[in-house]
């Protein structure tokens, strides 16, 4: 009996010890954070996009759609398997500048990571630029193809998308000036900038911004050109923001100095120049890289202050016509800017959508909580509206380059370019911020890569003209000889003409667009008449006008898309309805135009202001 009790006691003791050991292991496991949250997965961004394929089906002829779709599918696979990693590494291994060698010689050596160079090679291989200029493809088709590919590429590109924008703009500028085949450097530049061969392909910079310039390119240009012979000059000046300084060539503005040492001020004095950044031996062409900019985002991109100290450059275009010469470039780079804005918006939604199927909160995944899906749906509706506006710009640009634009098409291209850029940029930052919040604390952690999207998106309202500057550009479009307001109304009416009568939500959406258009036209006509009398200031509400145009145009495009039964589905109808009927399309009041409003604004802003420059306000 004693032996039996002893055995039982030993067994009990062993069992207790095992239980304690098991619990100790369990608690230790808990202490070390045994749970790990599954990260969001980036799927093929073309196949995973909810609307892109349907947009391309509508815009492209069937035979061309098949080719474009196959290319984008293949490219989407390359993004997930290769490009995304390269772009992330470019963020982690940022560029640096070495001013001197070990013996004190000034070398201004820019060091970028291998991944940055590989991304540039991929751009050549994939034809990111050349697609837009292939002679055997209809310009209408090739621009839509290019914009779609850039849209997929941009959020994974490690900011190589920036030199691609400037490269595209340079090709457009040089070809528009009819220099190909006539000017040696320009011809070589065009061939290399649009080359698919990574070993010979070039990229271009655009050096327009100076210390006192910013968006005021004409008034702030303090770079001067002294003629050597014929069209060859030496440039001297200080470029304040110069991105992608590892480019091969650059376009820049300068004022030509005459034989008496004088230069014409203002925009009439600016001429356009093309220069090689380095000579054949790799030495900088009269350029000093003063320092790299310490930026909030776009840290992958080498942006520098440059001192031009006798840089040899070729004048292209007519003297004093530099601003006109860069107009084509700005149109291209502003579309690229909008591509970046939309790319960031789509990327954060795609990742948040995938994460919602994996993240369990309060007993179920985020995807099953209505409040969360409502948040994602609102982001999706806004993104689709801007996305259709982007592809409308690609369509209009393609028609223009193909020589097939109607008068209305031509006027809409001039209108939509600044409107698209400013609106997409202004939507991107708050939308990406909302998307970051969908990940909770993880969205705030740098090593997830998610904050990079927000920091990089913040530049899009600034690059290529701030929101206010572009809003004033929109007003200048309206003040031209053509009746842009009438043309805008015609385009909107055209988009609404095929609205499905059997779909009540589309009919209500149409009525909402027509009402907003009528209200905008009425206000602008009234404001124009009053401005002549000095009673109102239209520029005070330039932003509101631009936003109204963007929302009316986007809403009409959504309705037109949803009315196409060959590609649209029920969600397209719902998106059009929510965009047009569940949020204001126009936010304008007549009293905002009044001159007294400007005085009140100043009183509010400078109330109790103690600055020494108060007398200048």
UniProtKB/TrEMBL annotation:
Keywords: FAD, Flavoprotein, Oxidoreductase. SUPFAM superfamilies: Acyl-CoA dehydrogenase C-terminal domain-like, Acyl-CoA dehydrogenase NM domain-like. The keyword Phosphoprotein does not apply. Residues 206-309 form the Acyl-CoA oxidase/dehydrogenase middle domain. GO terms for molecular function: acyl-CoA dehydrogenase activity; fatty acid binding. Residues 23-39 have a biased composition (Polar residues). The keyword S-adenosyl-L-methionine does not apply. Residues 320-476 form the Acyl-CoA dehydrogenase/oxidase C-terminal domain. Residues 1-45 are annotated as: Disordered. Residues 11-22 have a biased composition (Low complexity). Pfam families: ACDH-11_C, Acyl-CoA_dh_1, Acyl-CoA_dh_M, AidB_N. One of its GO terms (biological process) is adaptive thermogenesis. Residues 43-195 form the Adaptive response protein AidB N-terminal domain. Residues 484-606 form the Acyl-CoA dehydrogenase 11-like C-terminal domain. Belongs to the acyl-CoA dehydrogenase family. This is Uncharacterized protein.
């Amino acid at each position: 009996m004693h032996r039996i009790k002893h055995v039982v006691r030993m067994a009990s003791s062993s069992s207790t010890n095992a239980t304690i050991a098991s619990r100790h292991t369990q608690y230790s496991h808990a202490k070390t954070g045994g749970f790990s949250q599954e990260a969001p997965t980036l799927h093929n961004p073309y196949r995973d996009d909810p609307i892109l394929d349907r947009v391309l089906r509508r815009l492209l002829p069937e035979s061309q759609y098949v080719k474009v779709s196959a290319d984008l599918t293949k490219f989407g696979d390359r993004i997930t398997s290769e490009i995304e990693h390269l772009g992330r590494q470019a963020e982690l291994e940022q560029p640096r500048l070495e001013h001197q060698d070990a013996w004190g010689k000034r070398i201004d050596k820019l060091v970028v990571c291998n991944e940055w160079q590989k991304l540039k090679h991929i751009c050549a291989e994939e034809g990111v630029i050349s697609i837009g200029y292939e002679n055997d493809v209809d310009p209408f088709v090739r621009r839509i193809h290019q914009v779609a590919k850039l849209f997929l590429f941009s959020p994974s590109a490690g900011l190589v998308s920036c030199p691609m924008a400037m490269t595209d703009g340079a090709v457009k500028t040089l070809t528009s000036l009819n220099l190909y085949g006539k000017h040696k450097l320009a011809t070589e530049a065009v061939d290399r900038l649009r080359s698919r061969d990574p070993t010979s392909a070039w990229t271009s910079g655009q050096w327009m911004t100076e210390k006192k310039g910013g968006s005021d390119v004409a008034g702030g240009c303090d770079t001067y050109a002294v003629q050597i012979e014929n069209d060859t000059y030496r440039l001297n000046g200080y470029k304040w923001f110069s991105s992608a300084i590892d480019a091969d060539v650059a376009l820049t503005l300068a004022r030509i100095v005459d034989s008496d040492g004088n230069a014409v001020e203002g925009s009439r004095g600016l001429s356009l120049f093309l220069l090689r950044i380095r000579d054949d031996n790799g030495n900088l062409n009269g350029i000093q890289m003063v320092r790299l900019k310490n930026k909030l985002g776009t840290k992958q991109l080498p942006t520098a202050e440059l001192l031009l100290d006798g840089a040899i450059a070729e004048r292209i275009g007519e003297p004093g016509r530099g601003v006109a010469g860069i107009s084509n470039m700005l149109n291209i780079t502003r579309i690229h800017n909008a591509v970046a804005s939309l790319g960031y918006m789509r990327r954060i939604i795609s990742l948040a959508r995938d994460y919602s199927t994996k993240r369990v909160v309060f007993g179920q995944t985020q995807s099953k909580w209505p409040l969360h899906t409502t948040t994602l749906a609102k982001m999706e509706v806004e993104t689709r509206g801007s996305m259709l506006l982007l592809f409308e710009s690609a369509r209009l640009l393609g028609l223009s380059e193909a020589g097939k634009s109607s008068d209305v098409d031509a006027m809409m291209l001039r209108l939509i370019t600044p409107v698209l850029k400013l609106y997409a940029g202004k939507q991107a930052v708050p939308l990406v911020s909302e998307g970051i919040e969908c990940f909770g604390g993880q969205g705030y952690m740098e090593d997830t890569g998610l904050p990079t999207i927000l920091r990089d998106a913040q530049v899009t309202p600034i690059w290529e003209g701030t929101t206010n500057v572009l809003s004033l550009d929109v007003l200048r479009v309206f003040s031209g000889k053509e009746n842009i307001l009438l043309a805008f109304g015609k385009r909107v009416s055209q988009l609404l003409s095929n609205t499905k009568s059997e779909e009540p939500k589309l009919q209500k959406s149409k009525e909402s667009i027509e009402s907003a258009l009528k209200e905008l036209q009425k206000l602008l006509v009234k404001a124009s008449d009053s401005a002549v009398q000095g009673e109102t200031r239209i520029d005070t509400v330039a932003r509101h006008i631009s936003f109204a145009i963007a929302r009316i145009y986007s809403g009409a495009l959504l309705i037109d898309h949803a009315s196409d039964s060959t590609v649209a589905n029920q969600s397209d109808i719902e998106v059009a309805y929510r965009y047009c009927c569940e949020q204001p399309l126009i936010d304008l009041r007549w009293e905002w135009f009044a001159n007294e409003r400007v005085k009140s604004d100043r009183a509010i802003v400078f109330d109790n202001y103690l600055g020494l420059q108060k007398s200048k306000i």
